[in-house]
Amino acid sequence: MHARVVILGLVVLSAACSGTVYAQAADASSPAAVAQLEDQIRNAEADLKSQHDAVVKKIEFVVKLAAQVRDTRNSGSNAVILKEDCVRELRKMVTYYKAQKDQIHARLEAEPNPVMREEWEKQLRQADAMIEGRIDDIIRVAASLTAYSGLANFNGNGETGEIRDSTERKAAQDVSRVRVKVEDNLEAMEAARKPLQDELRQATEESRRAELKQALADLDQRIAKRRSQFAELTAGGGAGGQRPVSAQAAHDLDREVTDSFRDVRVEYDKLFQQKNDLDELRRQLAKAKVDAAGK
Questions:
Q1: Which value, in Å, is the radius of gyration of the alpha carbons in the chain?
Q2: What is the pLDDT of residue 48?
């Protein structure tokens, strides 16, 4: 967490993660102070992005682990359980992102400053991208479960029908749950096209028409991707590239998944606190620019 101290008219933000100290001169509207604030914000943004990218890489590494393993006669359903736990943790991350998005949206609704409104709108888009990334991860792990549908061979070890059927049934139920969610999401996105199309037909301002056209293009791209993902979940046969694991290996990986996501949530809490401090710098800059223009 950042420490905030006022010393001799300076507002100081100390980034605990990097040891960087940001200071705002007391005369915040002077050209030198504005330039200093802009430099501080650029440095803080670069630092925050670097940390966030590292957290995302950790999530993607865990997702890759979960998606690449499959059960053997020895492991029973342990690899399936590992995948279930990974999906559960990813869903928690989506819920976490949505809560952050709600906070940003509330700030946007209450924000009178046009500069800060642009910032909140940008952060809403970033939150949407984070949510979309974790949804993609959920679908990736769920698609790997389709390896257990039909006549899945558990490493060719001639498992008993009881074990195979139990594992296949468990996997099929997990895939079905995700597939229903994906189908609902796809229907919602397709329904969202009509209001945009209707507004586009009536819009006369060229800048607004350009925004609507871009929004439709982005939506169509997401719809196409989601359709492909739904087809992947429906087709089955997702065993390609998966490696068999023992019961102990699956158990150890499951623990690694749980521990990694716990660490990720702690790191995200720190990142969002840093983001809040950075937003305070942005607000100071927006005010400084307004004050400078009024001089």
A1: 24
A2: 94
* Cα 131 from Cα 90, distance rounded (Å): 10
20: left (phi over 0), alpha (psi -120 to 50) or beta: beta
The dihedral sign for the CA sequence 87, 90, 92, 95: negative
262: alpha, beta or left, given left = phi > 0 and alpha = psi -120 to 50? alpha
Specify the DSSP element, H or E, that contains 24: strand 21-24
Q: Sorting pLDDT into bands at 50, 70 and 90, what band is 32?
A: confident
Q: Report the alpha-carbon distance of residue 118 to residue 283 in Å, rounded.
A: 12
- Ranges of H-type helices in the chain: 31-67, 78-110, 114-144, 161-191, 193-202, 206-235, 247-293
Residue 24 has a pLDDT of 46
Reported confidence tier of residue 120, pLDDT bands at 50, 70, 90:
very high
Structure tokens at 53: 């990218």
d(CA 93, CA 131): 8
Alpha helices, DSSP H, located in 30-113: 31-67, 78-110
Tokens of 77: 């359903």
First-to-final CA distance of the chain? 36
Tokens of 222: 């997401």
Structure-model confidence comparison of residues 14 and 209, the more confident one: 209
Q: Which of 157, 172, 166 is nearest to 73 (CA)?
A: 157
For the stretch 202-229, pLDDT in tens is 999 999 999 999 999 999 999 999 999 9
Position 232 pLDDT exceeds 80 = yes
- The residues that bridge with 244 in the sheet, in sequence order, are 70
pTM of the full structure? 0.80
Q: Which two tokens stand for residue 12?
A: 């100081």
Q: Assess contact for 170 and 80: CB atoms under 8 A.
A: yes
pLDDT of residue 271: 93
Residue 26 Cα to chain centre, angstroms? 38
